């Protein structure tokens, strides 16, 4: 249809749209399969996307919502830069203040796509690398006080040309990482992935003709905006406010403006819906933090897009048309709009809270649709140390409870909101690291009681086998609790405990921590939070209470005290 | 001698018989008996005996494809299953890989664990990753867990201990004790079912196996009885997910390996038919009413996978890498809130089915669009057995047209194009994920709806050739006659190639070899040619994704890795990595994760019958009608009857070929050639 008119029929638009999504998915398949590190390959902490020539996201295959749109900044940075762009060039960056994703371990790569010498779009991907240097192994500790402690900052640089890979940036990254071999393999996988995207996008242009593809792309962006508008028209007009707290700072860290109080940073939002428009204002949100829980703009945007899509219409294609229709303002210098070089690596915990408050605000508008708070943290733990083949870093994200829905229980042991990474199998980690998992199970009673119970958190006990190891982590919801809705109870908080049930048992002071020395045979217990419940517990179907008791999801005591099971007034009993 | 293949589908049970004396094939179709599939199977045997005039004693082979295991899982109708597992790890099945099922749909639910949490029992024991005992299993604890299981009174038990792929002593001990103490309970151990690492996937496989075990066993014993009652002297063999025939004993022990029984028969048959037509590299395209199965076949060998899921639950036994998409003739079209036309994932299924079938369906489906476009016969299909309600199809599609503010023709064409592009995505996926370029493959179309869409799917993917076999609707039953008797014997190794322990590697190979030899001795028919092949699954150190490379012939033959064997495998691995991903890490450490031997007893592959030659298509011309094509709009198009086509006939597009079980669409830019065996070989012009 190359010679057809430049205003394609709606079906051709969709055929082209489906091709672009397929390409993004293929790029993801190549990236995962060719990558070297567990983090990308096994845990799929990566996403792939295609952009149009103006830098609008057209199609994305994201494994984690935090990546939604988070490559957009790179194209903008490239368009604004002095770099000349030639066919065959590939660019790389990771700087969160300059378009490089949302924290330093996320390396973003992009290849401009040319057809007959004309720039027609971009093929890009983002992947979380397991170590990008910095103060702490894994480059992901929550308690660094500056971006400079968090790892290597890579400005926007040319990574490859039509003649092949530029050795300098590759060597730079390798030299700055504790795991140079992985970096090399993962970056080559990213390169293979953007090249697949480039080839396929060229093919689409060749088949349909560039004017048709360009026009179709505009229609695709418009379609997403229309779906958002249609969903917004179902929301009663108004401004809906909600706020929640982060855990208080611990380990002596202080907020920028003075001594830390007992309270953590507040995240506040006002969501204004007016007809088919939506705007979010984060005024009232607390100042940027001295530790790495700050959220740069791309991360804030991705989180807001996630929350709106989940609540309003999960089927909205995530593209620039959707993004452009959402207004977001955040006070400069706040935790959701920090000043450079505020540390950012543990931004996901704050993003989870941002998702919570947007959902909380929308719950007032759509009480039948919005679930209670999920565990809403990213319990990111890292064990590192020496073993026979050198240094090891074992990162893991531990799931928790999914918020109780308005019609049914929350999911047990899942990732919520902005992430969805998988765990590393115990049998894989025990092959690779001098560690042993003693326990991996659901925590009874951790889900908030309710007509619909909150999902359960997870307990994972990791035993150190070698000469010792170091533990670092970032996690939240160890002080504040995931809230229930409509009378549902809060979920239980998470915690880290060294040597539970043994002499010298101690609970670590909070979720953002590094440099915890563990000796041989020490056990580090990770407990993730459960989620909030929905509706009054007294209204829960007694049969479900008995089933939970039989299955050990709740204890006898909870069945009795919270749900009234066995009492004379037990619901359903005559 | 008569060789019989019987495939049971949701609606029909298909019988294909080959009389080896004269090389003739006989086909029979009867309604499936859903309550007990074996009733129709036995009836089918009797019917085909009657038709051929053969005596029961003449039957020398009976192959069977069944959906009992699949249905058991899909209908959540399996055994009350208990799990015995390592202390501390009672929730491996509950937690899984901790991912939520949908990124954005907050109402989506995880597939519930097949074992109720109250039926999970833990026992104190622990193996290390190296296979050494860290915490011994005490006799007292073993006795205690057996008593707890007895008290729980399950129908099936899966025994799943950590690192049992490395050392299954504890697992075996508990399984043996359970079998001795509870002879009526179905017991399986994870390392016996899938001796591979990654606990969730292995435990899940064992749990599915236990869950379907009792029902499959009851079915198989009824089947054996009913076949015996027909007087047929040979017990049936069943096709497994990996495209090999299994004995009833193997099925009883490894029922989970029959989850893809029917679809794998289709792939084997398609490979056979295409192979005889001269094509070794193909992608099978089996489109039915509710779903479409696609599978990549390289050099006549279907690509295998160990990463399958059923209903959200991983199953890690060897199987053909058949990718299923929920798109078929019954997929429903609708217009979304942004004004865009979508097809699926909702389906009208077989009840009520497409509006055109007149069974009460009123939603517009892909089939309805095909009726309106003149691709499907607008009066009747299935050789006249089913009247088509054209008006109902028109009303259904008009609903979509109105929402799109366009005409009926445009809406119907749009439904067809979007269905094709969705399926093209599936075809791309199986090839790209196997590291292959689909343009070097031919598309083999079968199933009721495959040949209707194959040419457009091929063009979308950039493929140049489509093959439509003579009997696309009964291909699976044919597959049962050409499938070798085969079984896989994997062993976990997890050794570094550079500094491997030769003893360990040889031991794994020797064990697999002994198992394979023993199996051949028990299952190969007397006089059958047998063959053992082998592969290693390898990866770069710290990667968690493996590629398969062949084991050196010398290692397979001698059951020992000779000098240079491992180096040869490492070189092959780098080469495969380059082929799949475009590069290799020449200086990286390489690990051998698993080795697997495959033992096969070869069956004689029958030569498919050739058809009479002729070049004039007019003999087969039955009708002309307006048929709508994507590029040209409606064209006056000849309609041919498949049975009337002769070998050597050329059919330039546009053309429609009708037959009892399918309709083939040949677009204006394509040309079909009828080959010597009656296949339609369609060349698609690529721009």
TrEMBL record, chain A:
Any one GO molecular function term: 5-oxoprolinase (ATP-hydrolyzing) activity
InterPro entries: Hydantoinase_B (IPR003692), Oxoprolinase-like (IPR045079)
Region of interest: Disordered: 471-515
Chain ranges of the Hydantoinase B/oxoprolinase domain: 9-537
GO cellular component: cytosol
GO BP term (any one): glutathione metabolic process
PANTHER family: 5-OXOPROLINASE RELATED (PTHR11365), HYPOTHETICAL 5-OXOPROLINASE (EUROFUNG)-RELATED (PTHR11365:SF23)
Protein name: Methylhydantoinase
Species name: Streptomyces cacaoi
TrEMBL record, chain B:
GO cellular-component term (any): cytosol
Name the record gives this protein: Methylhydantoinase
Any GO MF annotation of the entry: 5-oxoprolinase (ATP-hydrolyzing) activity
Region (Disordered): 343-363
Domain Acetophenone carboxylase-like C-terminal: 507-677
Biological process, per Gene Ontology: glutathione metabolic process
One Pfam family it belongs to: Hydantoinase_A
Composition bias type Low complexity, residue spans: 344-357
Domain Hydantoinase/oxoprolinase N-terminal positions: 3-180
Organism per entry: Streptomyces cacaoi
């Amino acid at each position: 249809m190359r010679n057809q008119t430049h205003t394609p029929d709606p079906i051709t638009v969709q055929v082209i749209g489906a091709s672009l999504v397929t390409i993004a998915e293929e790029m993801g398949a190549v990236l995962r399969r060719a990558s070297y590190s567990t983090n990308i390959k096994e845990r799929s902490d990566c996403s792939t996307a295609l952009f149009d020539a103006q830098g609008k996201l057209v199609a994305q295959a994201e494994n984690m919502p935090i990546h939604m749109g988070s490559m957009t900044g790179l194209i903008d940075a490239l368009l604004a830069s002095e770099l000349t762009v030639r066919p065959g060039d590939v660019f790389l960056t990771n700087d969160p203040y300059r378009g490089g994703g949302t924290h330093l371990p996320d390396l973003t790569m992009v290849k401009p796509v040319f057809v007959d010498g004309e720039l027609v779009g971009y093929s890009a991907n983002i992947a979380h690398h397991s170590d990008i240097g910095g103060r702490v192994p894994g480059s992901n500790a929550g308690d660094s006080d500056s971006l400079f402690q968090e790892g290597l900052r890579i400005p926007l640089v040319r990574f490859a040309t039509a003649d092949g890979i530029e050795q300098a940036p590759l060597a730079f990254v390798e030299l700055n990482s504790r795991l140079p071999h992985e970096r090399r393999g993962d970056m080559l996988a990213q390169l293979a992935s953007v090249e697949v995207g480039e080839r396929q996008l060229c093919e689409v242009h060749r088949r349909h003709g560039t004017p048709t593809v360009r026009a179709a792309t505009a229609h695709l962006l418009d379609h997403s905006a229309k779906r958002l508008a249609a969903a917004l028209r179902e929301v009663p007009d108004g401004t809906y406010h909600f706020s929640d707290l982060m855990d208080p700072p611990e380990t002596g860290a202080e907020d920028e403006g003075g001594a830390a109080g007992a309270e953590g940073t507040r995240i506040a939002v006002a969501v204004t819906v007016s007809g088919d428009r939506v705007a979010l204002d984060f005024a009232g949100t607390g100042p940027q933090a001295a530790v790495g829980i700050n959220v740069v703009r791309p991360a804030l945007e991705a989180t807001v897009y996630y929350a709106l899509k989940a609540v309003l219409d999960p089927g909205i294609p995530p593209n620039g048309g959707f993004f452009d229709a959402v207004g977001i303002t955040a006070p400069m210098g706040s935790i959701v709009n920090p000043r450079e070089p505020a540390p950012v690596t543990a931004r996901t915990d704050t993003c989870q809270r941002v998702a919570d408050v947007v959902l909380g605000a929308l719950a007032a508008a759509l009480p039948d649709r919005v679930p209670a708070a999920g565990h809403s943290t990213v319990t990111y733990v890292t064990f590192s140390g020496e073993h026979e083949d050198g240094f090891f870093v074992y990162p893991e994200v531990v799931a928790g409870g999914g918020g109780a829905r308005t019609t049914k229980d929350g999911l047990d042991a899942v990732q919520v909101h902005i992430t969805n990474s998988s765990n590393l199998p115990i049998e894989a980690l025990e092959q690779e690291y001098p560690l042993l998992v003693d326990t991996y199970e659901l925590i009874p009673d951790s889900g908030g009681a309710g007509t619909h119970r909150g999902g359960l958190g997870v307990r994972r006990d990791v035993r150190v086998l070698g000469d010792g190891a170091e533990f670092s982590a970032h996690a939240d919801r160890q002080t504040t609790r995931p809230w229930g809705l409509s009378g549902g109870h809060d979920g239980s908080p998470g915690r880290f405990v060294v040597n539970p049930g043994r002499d010298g048992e101690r609970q670590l002071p909070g979720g953002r921590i590094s440099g915890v020395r563990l000796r041989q045979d020490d056990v580090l217990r990770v407990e993730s939070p459960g989620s909030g419940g929905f509706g009054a517990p007294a209204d829960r179907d007694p049969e479900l209470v008995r089933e939970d008791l039989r299955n050990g999801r709740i204890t006898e005591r909870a069945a009795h005290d919270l749900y009234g099971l066995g009492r004379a007034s037990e619901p359903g009993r005559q | 001698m008569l060789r019989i293949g019987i495939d049971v589908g949701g609606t029909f049970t298909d019988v294909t018989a080959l009389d080896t004396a004269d090389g003739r094939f006989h086909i029979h179709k009867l309604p499936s008996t859903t309550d007990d599939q074996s009733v129709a199977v036995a009836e089918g045997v009797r019917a085909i005996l009657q038709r051929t005039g053969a005596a029961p004693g003449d039957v020398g082979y009976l192959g069977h494809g069944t959906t009992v295991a699949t249905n058991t899982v899909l209908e959540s109708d399996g055994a009350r299953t208990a799990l015995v597992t390592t202390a501390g790890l009672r929730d491996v099945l509950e937690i899984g890989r901790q991912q939520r099922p949908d990124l954005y749909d907050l109402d989506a639910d995880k597939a519930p664990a097949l074992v109720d949490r109250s039926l999970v029992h833990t026992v104190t024991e622990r193996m290390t990753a190296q296979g050494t005992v860290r915490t011994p299993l005490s006799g007292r604890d073993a006795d205690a867990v057996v008593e707890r299981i007895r008290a729980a009174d399950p129908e099936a038990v899966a025994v799943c201990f950590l690192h049992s792929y490395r050392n299954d002593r504890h697992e075996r001990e508990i399984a043996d004790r359970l079998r001795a103490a509870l002879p009526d309970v179905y017991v399986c151990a994870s390392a016996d079912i899938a001796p591979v690492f990654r606990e969730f996937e292995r435990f899940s496989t064992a749990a599915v196996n236990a869950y379907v075990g009792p029902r499959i066993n009851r079915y198989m014993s009824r089947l054996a009885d009913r076949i015996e009652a027909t007087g047929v002297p040979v017990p049936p063999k069943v096709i497994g997910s990996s495209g090999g025939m299994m004995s009833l004993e193997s099925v009883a022990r490894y029922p989970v390996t029959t989850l893809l029984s029917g679809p794998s028969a289709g792939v084997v048959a398609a490979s056979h038919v295409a192979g005889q037509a001269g094509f070794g590299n193909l992608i099978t395209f089996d489109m039915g009413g509710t779903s479409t199965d696609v599978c990549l076949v390289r050099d006549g060998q279907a690509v295998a996978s160990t990463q399958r899921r059923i209903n959200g639950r991983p199953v890690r036994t060897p199987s053909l890498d058949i990718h299923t998409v929920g798109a078929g003739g019954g997929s429903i079209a609708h217009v979304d809130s942004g004004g865009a036309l979508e097809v699926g994932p909702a389906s009208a299924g077989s009840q009520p089915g497409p509006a055109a079938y007149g069974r009460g369906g009123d939603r517009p489906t892909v089939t309805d669009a095909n009726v309106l476009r003149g691709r499907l016969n607008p009066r009747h299909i299935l050789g006249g057995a089913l009247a088509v309600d054209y008006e109902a199809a028109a009303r259904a599609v008009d609903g979509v047209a109105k929402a799109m503010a366009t005409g009926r023709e445009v809406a119907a064409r749009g439904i067809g194009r979007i269905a094709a592009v969705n399926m093209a995505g599936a075809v791309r996926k199986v090839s790209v994920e196997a590291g292959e370029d689909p343009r070097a493959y031919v598309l083999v179309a079968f199933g009721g709806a495959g040949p209707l869409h194959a040419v457009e799917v091929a063009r979308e993917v950039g493929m140049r050739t489509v093959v439509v076999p003579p009997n696309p609707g009964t291909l699976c039953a044919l597959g049962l006659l050409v499938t070798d008797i085969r079984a896989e014997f994997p062993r976990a190794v997890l050794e570094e190639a550079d500094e491997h322990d030769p003893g360990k590697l040889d031991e794994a190979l020797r064990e697999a070899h002994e198992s394979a030899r023993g199996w051949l001795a028990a299952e190969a028919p007397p006089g059958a040619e047998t063959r053992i092949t082998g592969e290693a699954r390898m990866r770069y150190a710290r990667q968690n994704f493996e590629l398969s490379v062949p084991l050196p012939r010398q290692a397979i033959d001698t059951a020992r890795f000779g000098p240079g064997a491992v180096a040869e495998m490492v070189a092959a691995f780098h080469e495969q990595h380059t082929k799949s991903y475009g590069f290799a890490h020449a200086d990286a450490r390489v690990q051998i994760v698993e080795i697997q031997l495959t033992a096969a007893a070869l069956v004689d592959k029958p030569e498919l019958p050739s058809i009479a030659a002729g070049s004039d298509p007019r003999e087969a011309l039955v009708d002309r009608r307006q048929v709508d094509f994507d590029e040209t709009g409606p064209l006056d198009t000849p309609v041919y009857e498949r049975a009337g086509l002769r070998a050597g006939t050329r059919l330039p597009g546009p053309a429609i070929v009708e037959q009892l079980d399918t309709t083939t669409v040949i677009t204006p830019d394509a040309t079909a050639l009828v080959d010597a065996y009656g296949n339609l070989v369609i060349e698609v012009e690529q721009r």
